[in-house]
Write a structure and sequence with these properties.
Elongation Factor Tu (Ef-tu), domain 3; six-stranded antiparallel barrel; about 25% strand; peptidase activity; RNA/ubiquinone_mod_enzymes
Length: about 350
């Protein structure tokens, strides 16, 4: 770890702290959201031990975050702003451990998310008879929260004293991580440049990555029944991740590492860190230079588009499900320190 020189180490178990300080004295230490830090006295405790940043629990309101910042101004605060929410308090759920025979531990970054599973009731003595668990507008559905999406509130969180924003990414694709990071980066940069961002456009862009519907979590109010997804526990993106741009041959021709099947004539979005354009696939060539109609997953191909970005460093291509004729049922309800 000393040789790798990470920017920081995130941990949650207090018993691990002495070893971290002893063996890695020069590397900043951050306390994880899994440690369930909910108030300023807990933040003071970790600050006094030498922790440089606290990733606050997901169950805090904007007012509580601001209070913590005011009471403990000499420590960095980080907040989860995008991704899955846990049905339990941060770091306190043992469902995954129990239902996976201790093989999938939530606090080790490997939660099997049993809160997303479909369940049936079985009457004791009659295991062959299964009953659907149903819900109504009064509640009873407690296991499948929507994903948190706080892009609208980035200015408020910065003003409250937050210096770093956490997004889910460990089990996500490069497409998901890049799309989410790009949207939040635009929001952060707009704040510091004094510009007025198109929040609706940025919010809508996030819907193209997998999600279970969006919620503000605990930031403004305590969650009610509208903060849960009653339809599906799986993320349902409005787009298909088609490929990664690996090299530029000319202004309209690029090498592509294919992630999902693509074909000539397909309308796609060409997305780079600097720009996003809509274009059409005109020609596809395999590694032998032979022209092909369709490129399948994991193929390495060269594609000519009818247009390309003005500037290119790296990028991805995607298609929108509506344009591809794929049915989507997404339903929405409405780090870097400086």
């Amino acid at each position: 770890m000393q040789e790798a020189k990470p920017d920081g180490i995130i941990f949650a178990d207090p018993g691990f702290y002495p070893s971290l300080r002893k063996h890695l004295p020069d590397i900043p230490i951050h306390i994880s959201t899994q440690a369930n830090v909910l108030n300023y006295e807990a933040v003071k405790f970790w600050r006094d031990l030498g922790v440089s940043r606290v990733i606050l629990a997901r169950e805090l309101s904007l007012k509580e975050i601001e209070q913590i910042s005011q009471k403990v101004p000499d420590i960095e605060l980080e907040v989860l702003v995008h991704g899955s929410l846990c049905v339990s308090y941060s770091g306190r759920c043992l469902l995954s451990d129990y239902l996976s025979n201790n093989e999938r531990k939530a606090n080790q970054g490997n939660c099997s998310q049993p809160c997303r599973w479909r369940y049936k009731m079985v009457a004791e003595g009659n295991p062959d008879e299964q009953y659907e668990i149903t819900e109504d507008e009064k509640g009873t559905y407690i296991m499948n929260p929507k994903d948190i999406a706080l892009i609208r509130y980035i200015p408020d969180l910065i003003d409250a004293g937050v210096c770093s924003f956490k997004v889910e990414g460990r089990t996500k694709s490069m497409y998901y991580a890049s799309l989410v990071a790009k949207s939040y980066r635009k929001m952060i940069d707009a704040y510091y440049s004094g510009k007025e961002p198109d929040v609706t456009e940025l919010y809508n862009e996030l819907t193209y990555a997998g999600n279970r519907g969006f919620t503000e979590g605990f930031l403004l109010n305590k969650p009610d029944s509208s903060h849960y997804n009653y339809i599906s526990g799986k993320g349902n993106p409005k787009s298909v991740f088609l490929g990664i741009i690996t090299d530029k041959i000319s202004d309209d021709t690029y090498k592509i590492s294919v992630k999902n099947q693509l074909k000539i004539g397909e309308n796609v979005d060409f997305i780079t860190p600097e720009s996003q354009i809509n274009t059409t696939i005109l020609e596809i060539f395999d590694i032998y230079g032979e022209k092909i109609e369709i490129a399948n997953t994991n193929a390495e191909v060269v594609i000519k588009f009818d247009d390309g970005p003005e500037y290119w460093n790296k990028g991805i291509i995607r298609s929108k499900k509506e344009e591809a004729g794929v049915k989507t049922e997404t339903r929405l309800h409405s780090g870097t320190c400086y």
